[in-house]
Design a protein that fits this description.
single chain; 428 residues; alpha/beta; 7-stranded parallel beta sheet; 5-stranded mixed beta sheet
Length: 428
């Protein structure tokens, strides 16, 4: 299962004994909404061979009690180690799931999307629909680099890109790196220790020298770099990798992306513009909801909490900015992201003046990040991203003009019809 909000659990971590009390006779694994942590019962740990004698995997951790027994809380690669024992999904079920997901995207007015971390083996389900002209929106796939086997993956990445290079609606142009985890579970990589655990700066999922070497190799093959970086330590490591790539491989139009950029050290903010790095924000996260107040802020402390999601500051620096959702981590609806980007308030309108209000942006700026910013990230700015003669007819019809709606009500605007390249792909 999947989709529980970690803020419902003490410290955001699940205790398997709670699951054992409900289901003890079969393995249960539940993914949190963040997809960086999971919650397992004893039967699932047994299937995966996890016990007090088990060491933590590279880039992950089994949460343990005072006796060293795993409790069922799984962080980062520890969750994947248990999930590896789930029977694989069939091609038929994967295609059904993909169709449902794509249908949801076009219903929200989205006609270009990025599959952010896929194995080469799973590209085929996208390619099958693309070959039959059944993709309602264009997809760029980012294949996921593994810090333990990235050298062996290079040939796989190149092969899968070449194999599907003739599909108009599908590209395999990007390689995804996870530089760290998330702040809520204490796995984001920070420059200084967590406020609630002075022994930890989180988890850097890639040794820095490996990240530098892998980034150079991937860039040399012509792939776009896309690096997940939440903590200020991971953001700095990602920027260092981009800078190293440029110094080794020389100049080209590479448009590297650092995704999420939740916490950036002030010294690193100007480096985005200087290096041409696209800051990909998920604006819906820039609000003071329960996740923020119960888990994030206590881990960061006041000073660092006040530097989160510096969207306006990043835009003023001249850095290219794009907006996304990270769905299914959070809602795919751009109108919800617009509302938060403009107001920095929750759906309940709190706080009244907005959370970190200096980082609010205008509706025009937010809309541009969702459209022109994404088109630039996709290398498609000459074809789409704005309403103009000669641009591809990618557009949607909304139930109201967002410019005439109170900013707090933007999330109530709905999509009535969606067109991709002039072809209607959704209507109510």
């Amino acid at each position: 299962g999947a989709g529980y909000d970690p803020s419902i659990l003490p410290g955001g971590v699940g205790d398997g004994r709670l699951l054992d009390a409900v289901v003890a006779d079969r393995p249960v694994l539940l993914w949190a909404t963040d997809h960086h942590s999971a919650w397992a019962n004893r039967a699932a740990l047994d299937v995966a061979g996890v016990s007090a004698a088990s060491g933590d995997p590279a880039g992950g951790r089994f949460v343990r009690d005072t006796d060293g027994q795993p409790t069922g809380g799984l962080l980062e690669s520890a969750a994947h180690q248990v999930a590896a024992h789930i029977p694989p999904a069939t091609g038929e079920s994967l295609e059904a799931g993909l169709r449902a997901a794509l249908g949801r995207l076009v219903a929200e007015g989205i006609v270009w999307a990025q599959e952010a971390a896929l194995s080469p083996a799973n590209v085929e389900v996208f390619a099958s629909l693309a070959a039959r002209n059944e993709l309602p929106c264009r997809i760029n796939i980012a294949v996921k680099a593994d810090p333990l086997r990235w050298r062996d993956q290079l040939a796989e990445f190149d092969a899968v890109r070449r194999q599907h290079s003739d599909l108009a609606a599908l590209s395999v142009r990007t390689v995804k790196f996870f530089a760290d985890g998330i702040i809520e579970s204490g796995t984001a990589s920070l420059l200084e220790p967590y406020s609630d655990d002075h022994t930890s700066c989180g988890i850097a999922l890639w040794p820095q020298e490996e990240l530098l070497e892998a980034a150079v190799a991937v860039d040399r093959l012509g792939f776009q770099l896309h690096i997940h970086a939440i903590g200020d330590g991971a953001v700095r490591a990602a920027l260092d990798a981009v800078e190293h790539v440029a110094s080794v491989n020389g100049p080209r139009d590479r448009r590297p992306v650092i995704a999420h950029v939740q916490l950036v050290h002030p010294a690193d903010l100007p480096r985005f513009a200087a290096l041409g790095v696209i800051a990909n924000f998920e604006p819906l996260w820039a609000q003071q909801d329960a996740l923020m107040t119960d888990l994030t802020e206590p881990r960061l402390g006041d000073a660092r909490s006040s530097r989160q999601y510096a969207i306006a500051t990043m835009m003023r620096s001249g850095a290219p900015v794009s907006f996304g959702s990270d769905w299914p981590v959070s809602s795919p609806r751009p109108v919800e992201g617009l509302a938060v980007a403009v107001t920095r308030r929750t759906a309940e309108g709190l706080p009244t003046g907005g959370w970190l209000p200096a980082e609010r942006i205008t509706l025009a700026e937010a809309t541009s990040a969702y459209t022109r910013g994404v088109a630039y990230q996709a290398y498609e700015e000459s074809e789409c991203g704005m309403m103009a003669v000669g641009q591809r007819a990618d557009f949607c019809l909304l139930s109201a003009d967002p410019r005439a709606v109170d900013p707090g009500d933007l999330a109530d605007v709905s999509v009535l019809r969606t067109w991709s390249a002039g072809r209607e792909v959704y209507s109510t």
